């Protein structure tokens, strides 16, 4: 959070360098040991590779998803600079050719938008949004909102579904501005999903299953903070296009970064452990090309979540786009103020994670999950 709130680019670089040094010296040996053990256990379980195991367990065609994400990255190559450059100039005062990895937390912080996202409206705007969908968060059984500042509180927002439903915690440590709203609404989407799960479902369908489902609901709520109608009705902000343009650039960075992460993890988990050191360079190469900054090698093991979780995010971004389009088509641009839209969401949430994203989308409107829908969402078709 210190790096995100630091206006001096050189100080941001110093903080980043210190973090990278610690990662290399202290954390990477632990990450390596964990990864090697994961690969060993995979072979003991009879799978050719960690990649093959998780593709089978998730029921996801990794090769087909990879083709879709690579096509997205190729299709956005020419537009990446023109979309990002004006936002970098406006928020950081630099161009893409001067951007460093250490500057990204400050860019994502969007400090120049603080006036549009006042701290005193953070929790209330979420409560009002839920109320518009027919949900009284304050009276909702088992939902605990923890939004206060505490010295030793985790800086990372999270949702903890201890029991789904019945005991679901939404925890955030506010740092200021747009970032707080994005974190609260993202975790709020998770919270409402788990708080509305059918208690009669088996444990596996209530808390396990395909996490692309719950991530899609999280992104659905998070997307509201860049919706012009929501901004006007909940925060009294009439966006002249600046907030929308920033959101578009922000999202494009994340999407391209995750396509590169996925490509890297396919290689990382499809190789023998003896090739790990060589993959540090491959990691830096793939991320550098996708984001167009010099990406550090040191995080080649730290920047990997267990179980190919990157595929949950990638598929959730596509699923959320389909779902939001359905809600807008059926209930209009202010769907978030329609209790019937809330009924639709509660019916979906009731299923927990019993269905795959493909099954859920097929039942909702008969469409197929398609990552290319994100190009149209960003106006890049």
Present the secondary structure layout.
Layout: H1 9-44, H2 50-58, H3 62-75, H4 77-91, H5 104-109, H6 122-132, E1 143-146, E2 158-163, E3 167-171, H7 178-195, H8 203-207, H9 212-222, H10 228-235, H11 242-268, H12 276-291, H13 309-331, H14 339-349, H15 357-365, H16 373-377
Parallel strand pairs: 1-3
Antiparallel strand pairs: 2-3
Name the features.
about 375 residues; mainly alpha; Neurolysin, domain 3; three-stranded mixed β-sheet; 3 strands; globular
Structural description of this entry:
A hairpin with a 3-residue loop joins strand 2 (158-163) and strand 3 (167-171). Helix 7 packs across helix 9 (212-222), helix 9 crosses helix 13 (309-331) and helix 13 (309-331) packs parallel to helix 15. This protein has helices at residues 9-44, 50-58, 62-75, 77-91, 104-109, 122-132, 178-195, 203-207, 212-222, 228-235, 242-268, 276-291, 309-331, 339-349, 357-365, 373-377; strands spanning 143-146, 158-163, 167-171. With 381 residues, it is mostly helical. The protein is globular and about 55 Å long. The model has no long low-confidence stretch (mean pLDDT 92). Strands 1-3-2 form a 3-stranded mixed β-sheet, covered by helices on one side. The chain is 59% helix and 4% strand. The protein has one domain: Neurolysin, domain 3 (Orthogonal Bundle), CATH 1.10.1370.
């Amino acid at each position: 959070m210190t790096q995100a709130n630091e206006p001096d680019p050189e100080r941001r670089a110093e903080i980043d360098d210190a973090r990278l040094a610690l990662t290399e010296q202290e954390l990477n040996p632990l990450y390596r040991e964990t990864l090697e053990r994961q690969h060993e256990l995979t072979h003991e379980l009879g799978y050719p590779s960690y990649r093959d195991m998780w593709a089978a367990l998730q029921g996801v065609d990794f090769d087909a998803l990879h083709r879709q994400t690579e096509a997205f990255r190729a299709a956005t190559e020419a537009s990446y600079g023109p979309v990002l450059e004006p936002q970098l100039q406006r928020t950081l005062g630099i161009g893409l050719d001067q951007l460093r990895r250490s500057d990204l937390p400050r860019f994502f912080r969007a400090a120049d938008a603080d006036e549009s996202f006042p701290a005193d409206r953070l929790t209330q705007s979420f409560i009002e949004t839920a109320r518009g969908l027919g949900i009284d968060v304050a009276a909702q059984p088992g939902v605990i909102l923890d939004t206060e500042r505490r010295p030793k509180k985790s800086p990372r927002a999270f949702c903890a579904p201890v029991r789904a439903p019945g005991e679901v915690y939404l925890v955030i440590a506010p740092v200021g501005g747009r970032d707080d709203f994005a974190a609260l609404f993202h975790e709020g989407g998770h919270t409402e999903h788990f708080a509305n799960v059918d208690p009669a479902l088996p444990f596996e369908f209530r808390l396990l299953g395909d996490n692309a489902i719950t991530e899609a609901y999280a992104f659905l709520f998070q997307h509201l903070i860049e919706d012009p109608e929501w901004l006007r009705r909940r925060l009294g902000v009439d966006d002249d296009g600046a907030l929308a343009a920033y959101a578009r650039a922000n999202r494009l960075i994340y999407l391209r970064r995750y396509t590169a992460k996925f490509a890297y993890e396919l290689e990382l988990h499809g190789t023998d452990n003896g090739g790990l050191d060589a993959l540090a360079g491959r990691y830096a190469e793939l991320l550098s090309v996708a984001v167009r900054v010099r990406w550090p090698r040191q995080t080649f093991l730290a920047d990997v979540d267990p179980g190919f979780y990157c595929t949950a995010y990638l598929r959730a971004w596509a699923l959320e786009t389909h779902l939001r389009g359905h809600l807008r088509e059926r209930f209009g641009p202010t769907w978030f103020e329609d209790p019937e839209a809330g009924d639709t969401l509660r019916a979906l949430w009731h299923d927990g994670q019993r269905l795959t994203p493909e099954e859920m989308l097929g039942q909702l409107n008969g469409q197929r999950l398609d990552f290319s829908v994100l190009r149209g969402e960003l106006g890049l078709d």
